[in-house]
Structures are given as structure tokens and as C-alpha cells.
Design brief:
5 domains; single chain; Rossmann fold; Arc Repressor Mutant, subunit A; 28 helices; 3-stranded parallel beta sheet
Length: 607
């Protein structure tokens, strides 16, 4: 709620004529007389509005003794006699802390606040500032602000919750005469994460895009990141961008100064486009977060925080049932063992990923080709808060893996409530979707996180439980793998039942080079570097495989004794290999690994 809206609320509610709020934007401050001038204007406005009955114009004789003046005393007495309260509210108060030229102004604020506190009148002084402001000991305002601690009452505004968000979205819908789909509305609320400024910005952006002809489904899939919106704001002539950066650096700045530097046409255009706002004779960037972006080129990353109701298995089973023909919930209840409520919740998940749509006859159908589903899910999971936090932990640890416990802690932090920890099922669910997206792989209790350019072996696979994973165990050989990749490049896909290719297919799927698609087909997963030769691509994937990384670590620690490697590797993988089977697996992995290393080495020599 803005201070302007708050002022209107005080005017229009049951306390009308009993409480008067006058908001003052601190960004319009120009000199040491600012506080006195603001108080003067506040009282004169209250007098003009009939809230205070006073025959004279309100004036202040001494700017250092605001409460000691005749007008102030007489107006304060009137308020007390009539049981009324006058609030002088200084908005954007953090500007006093952040701009060096305004530090001296803080003394005027402090003196006025202390005098009001001492007088105990029906005049209230209010300040608002955004959280996250840190005052160092060397900041001149530090001591002054802490001196007021015993004289002020601090109140945090309640969280802008889902109900508030829905009201704001409804306002935009009514204004634009456009109704948002349930998935897009839910994503808006989830993405804004209780930041009203971000929700408003997203709404402006989305409704503009819809009016331009973009589909809501397309907007749902695109990541609604604040940086993207800022970049859109800056898609304008360079002179205007330079002017914005100039104002951001000095904000608030005299309009004359900006006009002198960039011309009235540029400044007026930015004000007209609402990227600059005018307060008195000063201008500033329309919003603090955008100002910070202009000065640092960094924007807050707002991740998607949707938690699916179920893991991938149940969702994909339902997809199988509607891949050819649309079906109603009642029809699916008859065809499955799921309850009506379960199916409804699964469709909420699928709608959130924009995989299904509801028809006019209350049936559900796929919104895309079935083979496009893994990539559509991946595109959205790349922006998920659990993935982003997991990737940060993965990079920070400078190790090959993070642990399941790390994922659990991240999930608990993201979804914990006042009631306590997040549900344990959340961890299993989110891991299931991240694996299906090709963004993580599991090696028992270890988790490997993949960046946007790489795919885990589980991409597009129904993985079953947490302990089931696609392990590369070198069932084929390097040479046959090269031949099959070449065939896939030429043909686009092959049958899963291709004669003599079962083991090679298993290896290539486990390496994340191929994936199973509809029609019992196998196709290549796109590579991040199309310039690589087949051998180079295969070698890189082999050396990146979890089992080969583990084998490297074991060789480094225990040497190349085959029996020792079999014992240690079977333990690490949670396998109960017989000695002969274990030796076969380890020998095959060593051979694959050595050929891959030789391929990379030969390529480096040629370069």
C-alpha cells in the first residue's frame, strides 16, 4: 500500500475527520529548510481541507524550533480538544541515509522528531524506509538514527500475501478487459513472491504482451525475471539510457541539471514513459530496484517456487492416457486407480508446466507434442528456486557432487512455514522433476547438478524412485557407440529394438547422449557444441559420467588393483556385485575411460 493510498483510506473510512495523514516524498528534499517547509505545507493542506479549523495561514518562525511556534501550538491544541490526530509521514526516508548531500538534513528530522516526542501532542511523525538498508559506523546518520530508538515505534508492514496479489491482478484484468488463465495467474503470484512492486511490474509487462498478440501459454513458459523486464525498459535510444543512468547515479537530481546535460526532449520523454518521476523540481528513477540495476547492472533474481503435488511418475502416467484423445476427470477416474482429487491435483501440476489445456466440454488434452514435454519442463525448471540454490551450492562446494541432505536443507528453507519444516515428500517430488528435466543426477546419496548447456542421463526418463538411476556401466564399447551416434545423426532416430544395439543404446542413454521418445524410438539429445566430432562428444560425456568420475577418484586413492576397485566401487554404488561381474564392469569402464582420455589428448595435440 502506498502512502497516497493510505491517505485516501484515512479520508474515506470510519475515522474520517478524526485522523489526517499527509505524505511527503523525501526525494524532493533540496536543503536545510525542507522539514520546516514540508510541515508547513502539511498543516496548510489540512486547514484547507477543513480537518483543522484555523483562521490564519500556518507558518513557522524558526526552522530549528518547529514545535515552538505559535501556529504549531495552536493547531496542536485544536487537535487535542477535538480528539483528532495529524500524521506527517516522510516516505522514501532511506534517501536521507544514502545520499551524502542529505546527511545534514537528518539533523533537522531528528530535532523535529525529538521535539514532537517530548511535546506529547496529537501530532505524529512517521517515516518509511525499505528493509535491507545498512548504516555503517562511519555514516553520519548512524548515531543520529540510533538516538531516536527510544522515541520511535517500529512497525513492519504485513506481508503482501496471495489474497492481496489476486486483488491486484483482478484490477489489471478489469482495466485491460483480459482474463488471465489460471496457470498464468498462479505463476504471477508465485513469481512475485510477495513483492508488490514486482507483481505490478510483471502485470504491466504481461498485459502489454497479451495486447500485442502474445499467447498466455507462451508468456507462461518464458521466465518472468525482473532483469528481462529492465532490459525491455532500456530498449530505447542510447541518449535516453545514458540519461537514466545519470539520474540513477545522482537520484534525486534537479531536473534542470539533467536537462542541461541531455536536453529537455530526452528528459520529458522519460517522464512521459514513466521511467523518471518528477517530485517538485527534482526527478528520480521510477523505482529503487531499477535505480540499483542502472548503477550496478545487477537485478534481484526472483526464482519460480512452485512445488508440484506429485512426482513425475503419476503425472506422466496421466499424460499417456490423454496423449491421443482428450479425457474428463470422471473418465480418468474410471480408467485408473486414482481418486478424483488426485487427478485434479495432477492436472494442476501439468497445467502449471503448461502441458495440458481444458477444452470447452471440460476435458483435458495435451498442449504440445508428447516428445516436447521434457524440454518444456526443463525450460521452466531452469528458473526454479530449488535448482538455482542447488547450482549455487554445487559451485560453492567446488566438488563433483552435493548431497541429498543439501537438497533437503535447500527445500526446507524454501518451503518451511510457521508450523515447522517442509514436508519430506517435497524433497522426493522436486528431485523427481529435476531429474526428469535433466538438471540433476543421483549417485546414491550424492547429487550432481548440471548447468543449462548440459543434460543428465535422466532427461526425459521416468526414473521411478530416488534410488533408481541410469548408471553408465560400459555395457558396449567405445567404437560401437561412435557408429550408433553416426547412424542417429544421419537418420534422426532409430527403433529401440534395433538389432544388436541394445547395450549401446543403454550406454548412450546413461551418458545423456540419447533419450527414449514416443513410438519406441531413440533420438539424440541436442549438444551444446555442434562443432565437436562424434568421438570428442562421446569422450567428453564418458569422462563426465558419474561412474567414471567415481572410478577416477578410486584409482587415485587406491591404485589400479582390480579387486580393490571392484570392492570399493560396488560399495559406493550400493551394488552387490559378484566378483566376476564386478571385474567385468570395472574393466569395461576402465577401457572406455582410457579411450576417452586418449581421444581428448589427441585432440589437444592436434590443436
Amino acid at each position: 500500500m502506498t502512502t497516497t493510498n493510505l491517505a485516501e483510506r484515512f479520508t474515506n473510512k470510519k475515522w474520517k475527520n478524526k485522523l489526517y495523514l499527509y505524505p511527503i516524498d523525501v526525494r524532493s528534499a533540496r536543503g536545510s529548510r525542507f522539514v520546516a517547509e514540508a510541515v508547513c505545507k502539511a498543516f496548510n493542506t489540512a486547514i484547507d481541507d477543513g480537518f483543522i479549523e484555523y483562521e490564519h495561514k500556518f507558518s513557522i518562525e524558526n526552522i530549528d524550533e518547529i514545535t515552538g511556534g505559535t501556529a504549531f501550538r495552536e493547531c496542536a491544541e485544536y487537535l487535542e480538544r477535538n480528539n483528532k490526530v495529524m500524521v506527517v509521514f516522510f516516505d522514501q526516508f532511506e534517501e536521507v541515509f544514502m545520499k551524502e548531500e542529505l546527511f545534514s538534513l537528518f539533523r533537522s528530522f531528528r530535532r523535529f522528531a525529538l521535539d514532537v516526542s517530548a511535546e506529547k501532542t496529537n501530532v505524529v511523525v512517521g517515516f518509511s524506509w525499505r528493509t535491507g538498508i545498512f548504516l555503517g559506523d562511519d555514516n553520519p546518520a548512524y548515531g543520529l538514527w540510533h538516538d531516536l530508538r527510544d522515541h520511535r515505534t517500529e512497525k513492519r508492514l504485513k506481508t503482501f500475501d496471495e489474497k492481496d496479489s489476486r486483488k491486484l491482478i483482478s484490477t489489471f484484468e478489469a482495466e485491460a478487459d483480459i482474463t488471465l488463465t489460471k496457470p498464468l495467474k498462479a505463476r504471477l503470484i508465485q513469481q512475485a513472491q510477495g513483492f508488490p512492486w514486482f507483481l505490478k511490474k510483471l502485470c504491466i509487462h504481461l498485459f502489454k504482451k497479451i495486447k500485442e498478440g502474445n499467447s498466455q501459454e507462451e508468456l507462461l513458459i518464458s521466465q518472468m525475471q525482473i532483469k528481462n523486464l529492465f532490459e525491455e525498459d532500456l530498449d530505447r535510444p542510447s541518449r535516453e539510457v545514458d540519461c537514466l543512468k545519470f539520474v540513477a547515479k545522482k537520484s534525486p537530481v534537479d531536473r534542470y541539471e539533467a536537462t542541461k546535460e541531455f536536453g529537455d526532449k530526452t528528459v520529458s520523454q522519460l517522464i512521459s514513459d514513466r521511467l523518471l518521476i518528477k517530485t517538485g523540481e527534482k526527478i528520480s528513477v521510477y523505482w529503487d530496484v531499477f535505480r540499483d540495476y542502472l548503477t550496478t547492472n545487477e537485478a534481484p533474481v526472483i526464482s519460480w517456487a512452485f512445488m508440484p503435488n506429485y512426482g513425475t511418475n503419476m503425472s506422466l502416467k496421466l499424460i499417456e492416457l490423454i496423449k491421443d484423445d482428450a479425457a474428463s476427470i470422471d473418465e480418468l477416474v474410471e480408467r485408473t486407480s486414482y481418486s478424483k482429487g488426485t487427478i485434479q491435483n495432477i492436472f494442476i501440476d501439468l497445467s502449471s508446466f503448461s502441458l495440458v489445456v481444458k477444452t470447452s466440454d471440460d476435458k483435458y488434452k495435451l498442449n504440445c507434442d508428447i516428445d516436447e514435454i521434457p524440454e518444456k519442463v526443463r525450460t521452466q525448471m531452469l528458473g526454479h528456486t530449488i535448482y538455482k540454490e542447488s547450482m549455487s551450492a554445487f559451485k560453492a562446494g567446488n566438488k563433483s557432487y552435493i548431497s541429498i541432505d543439501d537438497i533437503a536443507q535447500i527445500t526446507n528453507s524454501a518451503y518451511s512455514s510457521e508450523a515447522g519444516r517442509a514436508h519430506d515428500q517435497y524433497v522426493n517430488r522436486i528431485i523427481s522433476w529435476l531429474r526428469y528435466s535433466g538438471l540433476i543426477s543421483l549417485l546414491r546419496d550424492k547429487v550432481r547438478v548440471y548447468d543449462a548447456n548440459n543434460y543428465s542421463p535422466d532427461f526425459g526418463e521416468i526414473t521411478g524412485g530416488r534410488n533408481k538411476s541410469s548408471l553408465f556401466l560400459a555395457a558396449s564399447n567405445f567404437e560401437n557407440a561412435v557408429l550408433l551416434i553416426d547412424k542417429l545423426i544421419k537418420q534422426g532416430s532409430i527403433e529401440q529394438s534395433e538389432h544388436g544395439a541394445r547395450n549401446v543404446i543403454a550406454d548412450l542413454v546413461a551418458l545423456g547422449i540419447c533419450r527414449r521418445v514416443s513410438g519406441n524410438k531413440i533420438e539424440l539429445v541436442k549438444t551444446s557444441d555442434p562443432d565437436l566430432t562424434i568421438e570428442q562428444h562421446l569422450a567428453i560425456q564418458v569422462l563426465s559420467a558419474d561412474t567414471v568420475i567415481l572410478l577416477d577418484a578410486l584409482v587415485l586413492k587406491y591404485g589400479d588393483d582390480l579387486n580393490t576397485l571392484v570392492e570399493k566401487m560396488s560399495h559406493e554404488l550400493g551394488k552387490k556385485w559378484k566378483p566376476a561381474s564386478g571385474q567385468r564392469y570395472v574393466r569395461a569402464l576402465l577401457r572406455y575411460r582410457n579411450l576417452a582420455k586418449n581421444t581428448i589428448a589427441a585432440n589437444m595435440e592436434n590443436d
